[in-house]
Amino acid sequence: MDMKNDSIVKVNGLVKKFPIGSAGYFTALKGIDLTISEGEFTGLVGPSGSGKTTFLNIVGTLDKPTHGQVRVLNKNVENLIPAQAAQLRKEEMGFIFQSFNLLPVYTVFENVEFPLLLLNIHSDERKKRVMESLEWLGLTSKVNSRPAQLSGGECQRVAIARAMVKRPKLVLADEPTANLDAENSHNILKTMVKLNKELNTCFVFATHDEKVIGYLRRIIHLEDGSIAQDTRVQNPDSQQEK
After folding, report:
1. Is-contact 51 26, C-beta < 8 A?
2. Are 42 and 231 in contact (CB under 8 A)?
3. What's the farthest any 2 CA atoms get from each other in the chain?
4. How far, in Å, CA of 15 to CA of 27, rounded?
5. Which sign does the torsion angle of CA 195, 198, 202, 206 carry?
6. What is the pairing mode between strands 218-223 and 226-232?
7. Rounded (5°) CA angle 49-51-54
């Protein structure tokens, strides 16, 4: 199956089952068909247990489908061996989690630099990219701070800088505002909208946070492992322009 040039994710007949006990299965995703294109700012929305994080994990090559085809950045996820999946994540994807997942003994600079170390990029180029990312996120004054010295909002901005430092084509964000207050949530979301527009990075969220939903340009409602509704938003919440 060919994938359109501007498609980042193409999913056909995705089924994911998890074993329960010795004989049963829980079906988390029930035959999902979905295409997500380059530069989208879209979200998987639904209650806990609807399949959002499971879908994100499969798209992010952290898990494999039970049935169906999942093609991400021109690679069939179901055919990737672990080393190939890790390489795809390392080179082409960024991840943002609700728990930040920063390394506590590292400075802000070192946390953001870490993905570039894995790519064996020269130190001068690493420094340039790290400082550029920190400037995008307004964190240049925190370059030598450690996570324990930062607020929750600052930690999440560091996590975004780390996700964006290699300019990935796809960023997957799982409940990125869950541990933030309203003001920090809106600041983080405005920053992600800006990066999406300026860098044409595709952002895919898993969320049930109404604040996040207000910024999305496409809302995919999941219910009980199936797509209940897929809506394009012409004019996302005006608050992102304030």
Report:
1. no
2. no
3. 56
4. 7
5. positive
6. antiparallel
7. 115
| β-strands 75-76, 202-207 pairing | unpaired
What is the distance between the alpha carbons of residues 187 and 168, in angstroms, rounded to a whole number?
A: 21
C-alpha radius of gyration, the chain, whole number? 18
Burial 130-160 (b: 16+ CB within 10 A, else e): bbebbebbebeebeeebbeebeebbbbbbbb
CATH 3.30.565.10 fits 39-64+82-241, yes or no: no
Q: And the tokens for 113?
A: 């630099």
| pLDDT score recorded for residue 1 | 36
pLDDT in tens, 3-41: 445 799 999 999 999 998 877 999 999 999 999 999 999
Of the CA atoms within 13 Å of residue 80, those in its CB half-sphere come to 25
Domain boundaries along the sequence of the chain? 39-64+82-241
Q: Per this entry, what is the length of the chain?
A: 242
pTM for the full model?
Answer: 0.89
